[in-house]
Each structure stands twice: as structure tokens, then as C-alpha cells.
Amino acid sequence: MGGLILFIFYGSILFFIIAMALRVRKCLNAPLHLHWELYKGSSIYELTEWWAKAHNTFGEKLWSMILDILFLREFYHRNRKFWYFLYPFHIGIYLLILWHGWLLVSALTTPVESAPIGDLVWGHFAAALTFIGGVGIFIKRIVDEDLRVYYPPIHYLKWMFLLITLLGGFYAVHFYFEERMPTDVMKLSLYPESAPALHVLFASVWLVYLPFSHVFQLFFRYYHYLRWDDVPNLRGSEIEIRIKEHLERPVTWSAPHIQSGKRWREVASELPQIPSPGPK
Amino acid sequence: MVTERKKIRLKDISIHTDEPLITVTANDLMPLPPPLDQQEKKAPYSPLSEDQKKNYECSLDGVSALALPKPKSKEEEEKLVERFLRGLEKLLSQNDNWLFWQPLIQSLESCVRCQTCSDACPVYVSSGNQEIYRPTFKSEILRRIINKYIKKRGKVLSKLTGDDIELNWPTVARLAELAYRCTLCRRCAQSCPLGSDNGLITRELRKMFSQEMGIAPKELHESGTVQQLKVGASTGISSAAFQGMVEFMEDEIEEKWDKRIKIPVDKEGADILLIHNSGEFMSWIENPVAFAIIFEAVGLSWTLSSEIYGYEATNYGTWYDDIQFARIALKQVEVAKKLKVKRIMMGECGHAHKGLIVIADRILVDDMNFPRESFLPLLEDLVCNDKLKLDPGKNNFSVTLHDPCNFVRLMGIVEPQRRILKKICPQFREMEPHGLENYCCGGGSGFAIMNSMNFKEWRENISSRMKLKQILQTFNNVLDPGIRKYVCAPCSNCKGAIRDILSSKDLWEKHSIYYGGLVELVANAMVDMKKPFIEWEWH
Question: What ipTM was predicted for this assembly?
Fold first, then answer.
């Protein structure tokens, strides 16, 4: 049983890494789309000869992303009622992630028996915060009709499963730390009790789900030229090379004015032979 | 008596009925501030005639933007639905839709249905929160159609991810009309915490209808891009007519302001090829005149072009069709290349800015990748660095600025126009909100020129309503008709939409609220203009 749990858990970590890598690869290999950005402030287009100016906005993007993720600024400014629940939920999640990281470090550096009580408080606090925020969002999603009619059933199941995972985790950790520690450490590590085992199983499910969730979409908002991509297409640049490749693709659309079947470059540069509608 | 409004559900899009899903009434509309604060009695748009209802699809909201003919038979309906599905597949294919695949997929996948975008949408709010105008309404329908008919995930997963939309002809017809109830101002996208862009989804839907099914508003396609590619301008102006207009401009300048200027046309090797929206020549010739006066006053090396495609900045393809967009952009650049100018400069036209300067950057390669820029940085340099002799006292009247969405949110040109106005207009006052948070004029994405059936009424009373509210709020303490007020709208389409809302409410006659471009204010402030440039005559 213990071996199976370990296999599922480490397997889910491996799955998470591979799925994320594939997802990143899919994004990197996506065709270079046309400029369609939105701006948060002044851009290089306020300058004359903008194509010759510096376009480094990496630092600005990174800093903005950190602030957005830490404080959920967009929700705070534009949807405060939602933010009241969303924020504790996210802070709780961040603290839980950090807590797990800290537990890993602690496990590698100190004997389990000497785990400080502060660790437990940290974990419980983070779980409670996440739970309170999660319950708030779940209820809001049910009672607010505008939210409810657009939210597919699968997301309600997701929230329920998340709350169960949190409760299970709370119970498992509480049980593990307070009732069995430190007298029976070896037995627990080899043959986990059902509560910790179930929690590890739930965590594995989340690891498998995460690469397909909305969470990682947030990064693409900043790094997929959706905002502030002022990098111009200069002659001989990597961008130009990619565009040239795209222009060789066939046009497949079927409307009469398109001239389907030719390459993009040809269709764009030749005038269409539009059939005459005839005398009126 | 106020009757309770029927709640519209997503699946209602598929209902088989000729009756509209909704009809916006006067009671639904967002209230306006004084002097228009009396409850309106007149419906925001007239019902279509029985004949129109019989022949055209109008079962969304009783409005027809597309004049979409009703299919004659069940077979024809099925064929059209099938073509819609094939088009949708192409939209979701990297190969077929490489131009916008990535942001489209991102927008479809990232929405968390928090509805933060709803309150950002001027059409949704102005209409009294009509469900069908909610930015996520059509996006969610599209998502569910994709889940059910394209991804085909199996019964259970489809049910869980939402499979309640039936894809039939009413769904397709309503989606086609719905794609033209959003001005693509992308205020919703700006407000989305996840970066989902409902404006892009709308634009892609329009594109699919045009490129796969040949469905697009006549004003954008046949009289727009097709006419532009055929005769050189979407207004239908020929090269000869354009040259006549330039002569008229020269005479006008001499007659009114006692200056003889030779407007350069087809001057090879000039620094700047200035391209105006040809609508300016037809409706607001004072705008290109002001440009000419300013450019000549500082001795710039510039030219206009009389070459076919060289005197028209518009590119309606920006709003509905990638192919038409690319064709026009390439033609415009070819003119500049032929003239051997150093750069193309766009005049006061928002979508032409975004189209040729920004979007086209990813289709222009080799020597077609030609320098292109906005007139605003140059004008700012001329005004703010005292290269023009200006007297702000000549503009001593209330001025506010309407921000064209294409300049601010969609391009990041936010400050030059403000610095110019602050320098030359002592009574400049901002609208609220402004800059990146501005509201669309209601004429965005082609609406300003679309006048099919009752669509103009819908635009004036619904999509432009928020702008009207802003204008009235901005001038609320100077509504006295004895005080002149000027709404500065540095974009041709915005000017058209603002003209129509001011006109429909008699705001010039009753409250002296006038409108115009930015360069007109600069020309008006020029010290050596013997008579005021702005004539305060409604047109």
C-alpha cells in the first residue's frame, strides 16, 4: 500500500513536470501571431522613429506580474467583492506551497522528532485561510446568478474536491503530528495511515490537473505578447524569419474573395478576381 | 408600469423563433445626466418593417447590422451550419489561423467566468445590462459549441463542461449579428484579470463569418475593402477626384486665411508621406487643411499621394478580415516605396494607426517593412518645443478630449495629445474616465459607417450612449448655450459617431457643444492666422 502511494505521488510529480514541459513547448512552437497588444501606459509609439528605440520591457513585465500574482491587483481594483474571498484563498495557497517547501527542507536537515510546533501552526493557518476563501468563492458561485449560469458543472466539482482535499489534509496532518508523533515514526513512514495516504492521493490528483488549469494561463498574459510587446519586426531579425515562413503557408478559407489554395504571400499581394454580381 | 424582463440564458441562442430574444426599451436604458435626464419615452430603435422581418435575420434583438438574408430551405440552413462548423475548425487550427491562433486560444481557455469584464463594457451597461450584450455571452456560447461539436469529449465530460447549446441556423444567425454588437474597444480585455480578450473573440468570429461564409456588413466589405482595392478608397474617391480636392483645399486656404500654399502631392523623396482617412476629404476637409497649414508653416518635407491606395488610410479589414487587411496594408506600403519617401505618417484615424503601424508589423517583410508612425509624436514636438508660434488665448473655450481606443489602450499613445492640449487650450478638461480607461465613442470597429436598417439608431442610442453621458458630465457646469464647447476627437470614425450623437440630441443648437479634430485646434492657435481657423459651423 505504501509503495503504491509513493508510486502514485512521485508519478504525479513526474506527470506534472512532463505535462508542463509539453505545454510550454506548445506555446513556444505556436505560430507568431500578429500584434494585438493592450497597453498599460505610454508605449514606444509615442516616440518618433520608434522602431529604432530600445524595447526592453522584461523587467517591467516581471515586476508587474509579481505584484499581480501576490496581491491580485486586477481583482482588487475591478471586482472587489470577488477579491475578498479570492485573496485569502490565494494567500493561503501561496503559504501552503511555501510550507510544503519548508517541510521538505526541514525533513532533509532536522530529525522529524524535533519539528517545531510553529510549522504546524503555519500549515493549519494556511489551510484555514485557503478553506475560508474557497468556501466563500464556492458559495458566491452558487448564489450569484450572473456567475452561476456561466460556470460549467465541472468547476463546482473542482471546488468541492479542493475543499475536501483541504479538510483531508488538515485532518491528516493534525493526526500525524499530534497523535502518532514521535512514538511510531517508522511504522507511519512505511505503512501510512489511511488519512495521510488519502491526502497524498488527493494531492497527486491536483498535480495531474494543474498543468491543464487556469492558473498557468496567467503567465501567458504577460509572456505571450498579449501586453506591451513593443518588439518591432526588424529586417533580418528572428521575427522576420518566422513571418516569412508563415507567409508560405497555404490559405484555406473558402469565401469567394479569398482565392483559397494559394500561399499567404500570393493571396495578400495579388488583387482578388472578385466575380461580378452582374447588372443590377 | 415596469414589466419584469425575461432572463436570457445561454441556450436561448438556439431557440427557433423569428421573434427577437430581446428588444431594448426606453426603460432599460442607462440614465443620462442633465440636460437629458428626463426619462426617454421613445424606444432606442425602431422595429423593422414587416417586409424586412420577412427577408432578413433579426431574431437577436430586432436589429439588423448585416442584412443577412433568411435561408430559403431547410437544406440551405443545414449547409450554412455545416460551413460555420468548418470555419470554426479553421479558426482553431494553427495552420489555417496562424495570425491570431495563440491569443484566440489563450482567450478561450483562460476565462474564469468572474464577469469582471461586464461592467467595463459600455454597450452592456448602456443597454441596462442586457444579457446578450455581456462580453462573455457570445464567448461562452462559442466555447460550449467548440466543446460539443469540435472537441467531442464524450457524453460525460461534455455535460460537465457545458453542452447545452444546440448548433442550428438560429444560433449561427444570432452569433453573426452578435459579432456586430461589440465595438472591439477591448475595455473588457483591459479589465480581465486573466487576460482573456472577448474583443478578440468577437473579431475572430467576424473573421470566420467573412473568410469562410462570405458574411460581412456591406459597408465594411463591398463598399469598404472591396471598393478600396478596386478604386483606391473606401469612400469611392478616385485619384482625379482627390487631386481636385487638393486644389479646392489650396483655394480654401487662400480665400479664408489669405495664405497661398502649394500642397505637395506625389513629391518623390519627401521625408513624410501623410495618409488621411479619405472620409476627412468628404466630411471634414478642414482637418487635412489644418495639417497642410501646420506642416508648411514649419517647412517639413512632406507629401500627399494621388496614387491609387495612397490617399486612403482606412483599412476596414482590421475589424473583420485578415486577408482584406493584408491586401490593403501591402498596397499602402507599395505607394510609399514607389514615392521613395522616408516614412509613412498616419493622420487622424485610429484604426489606421493600429492597423498599419502595429498589426501589419507582422506581415511586412524585406523592403515592404517600411517605417510607419503616428502624427502625434511629431505634432507634440512642433507644439511643445515651440516650433510653431502659438497663442493659447485663441483657444479660450472649454475643450475636452475623446481618446480613440486605438490610440490609447490599443497602442499606448496616451500623453502626446494631452501635452498638446494642455499647451494650447487654457480651458482643457479631461473626461472621466480617460486615457487607457476611456470609453469608446460607440462607432468603433466600423459602427460609425454602418447604417443598415435600424442599426444607426441602435448605435446612437446604445453603443454611443456612454460617450454621450461622459460628454455631458464633462461640460455639466458650462451647458449654457452662450459658452462654446469643443469635443476634440482625433479620429475620423470617432468624429462621425460623436457628430451623430450630438446631432441626434440637438446639443450643438441647444448647448453649443461642437466637435472636431486635434490639428484644427493647433491651427486655430497659430499666431499668424489672420482669422480663427475653427469656424463653429455645424457639419
Answer: 0.94
